[in-house]
Amino acid sequence: MKDKEIMEEGQVEIQERGDIYFLYRPKVGKEEAHSADDVQRLYIILRPESGEEKQDSHSASGSDGGHGSQKVNIELEKPLFRLIVMGRKKLPDATQKRRSFWGFVEMVTTDAEDVKAALKGEEYETKSRGHRHSSDARGVGEGVYRILRHKASGHSHMHTHLVYKLEFPSEDEEGQPQESLNIEREGSFIIQIKNPESESGRFRGLQNKRKAVFPAHLQGQLGHVKFAPADPPHLLNYQGCELLLISASHHIQQELGLDLQTEGGPDASCSHLLTTFGDTVSATPLLKGTWL
C-alpha cells in the first residue's frame, strides 16, 4: 500500500521501508515485568522490504553487512533482520523535542533462528551470584517504518528520520507497557549514525573491539564528523553500528506530510512478529497492551 504524501514545502524522500518490531526482556531473575523499572533491555527489530537493503551500487552481492571481516550473506530473496538494543531501555519521549537516546546494532542476519536465539531466555552460572535466569523477550509493538531523507524548507542541511506507525496492539487495548516505554502509536525520530573513527569525547559507547567496521566507501561518506545521517540506511547492516534516536514528533503527517499506511488487521494471525518469532516471544503485551 502506498503512503500518502501531502506536504509541498520541504523535501521528503523515502530511502527504506519495512516492518518494525519492539520487544523487551524482563530483568535477570524476574519472570515478569510490571513496570519500566523491571525491564532489562528494549529491542527494536527492523525488517526492510525485500531488496531495500541492496540499494547501494557499491555493495558486493551477497556480502554486504556484518562486523569487520565477518560477513552476513545478504540475499535479495531472504528477509533481513537488524536487532537493535536501546541503551536507556525505552524510546525518547516524543513530546520532549531533541531528546536523544543511544543504541547499537547487536545483530544483522537473514536467519530468523539467529534472532530467536538472541531473544530466548537462558540459564547460566556466575561466580558472584550463582545460578541466574533470564526470561524470553516479549513483543510489545509491531508496525511499519520508513527511513526518510528530509530537507526542511529554508534549511540547507539534510537529515534522516526513522518514522513508524503501529499495527499492534490495536488502539482499543490498554497500552500500559507501550506508554511506559514511550512507544507511541506513531513516532518520528531523527536518526544519526556514530562515526566509529571519530573521537568520542565524553560520549560513552561500545568498546573499540565491538564497534562497526564499515567498508571504505561508507566510512568515507562519514568523513570526520562524530555523527552523520543514516544515509544510506544500510549503514545499519553492520553489527556494532552505534546510533542516536532524537525525538522529533508523534504526528508524522503534521511534521513531514507523510501518512503511513499499515497493512495488518486486528487478528493475531496478521502479526508478522508472531508468525516469525512466536514460538520464542511472549505475545500478551503485543496483543493486549498489558505487562507480562
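The above is record 1. Record 2 follows with the same two-line structure.
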Amino acid sequence: MSTLSKEQIKAIVKGNNFQSVTDVTNYLKDIIQELMEAELEEKLGYAKRRT
C-alpha cells in the first residue's frame, strides 16, 4: 500500500475546493466505499450489482 505525499494531499484539497469539514468527510466516505467495493469484488470475483 502506498501513502500520499503532502504535496499530493494539498493538490487533492485544492482541486476539490473543500469548503468545510463535512465536504472532506463526504469525500473520504466515498473513497472508503470505493475501496471496500473493490476489495469485495476482488474476493468474490464479481462486481456488486448497481441499480
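The two ends are 31 Å apart (CA to CA).
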